[in-house]
């Protein structure tokens, strides 16, 4: 289903951005 795929893609993008922010926070310190 197209809508379901788009929803999962949005979820994955949001999670990746969240992990990136946490990684930057760890580097900053």
Report on the architecture of this protein.
By secondary structure, the chain is an all-alpha fold. The protein has one domain (1-29). Helices cover 93% and strands 0% of the residues. The protein has 1 helix and no strands. The longest helix is centred in the middle third of the chain and has 27 residues, at 2-28. The radius of gyration is 13 Å and the shape is rod-shaped. The relative contact order is 0.12. The mean pLDDT is 98.
Overall morphology = rod-shaped
Which range best describes the helical content: under 10%, 10-25%, 25-40%, 40-55%, 55-70% or over 70%? Answer: over 70%
Strand/helix succession: H
User: How many strands appear in the DSSP assignment?
Assistant: 0
The count of helical stretches stands at: 1
Tell me the radius of gyration: 13 Å
Main sheet? none
Compute the separation of the termini in Å: 42 Å
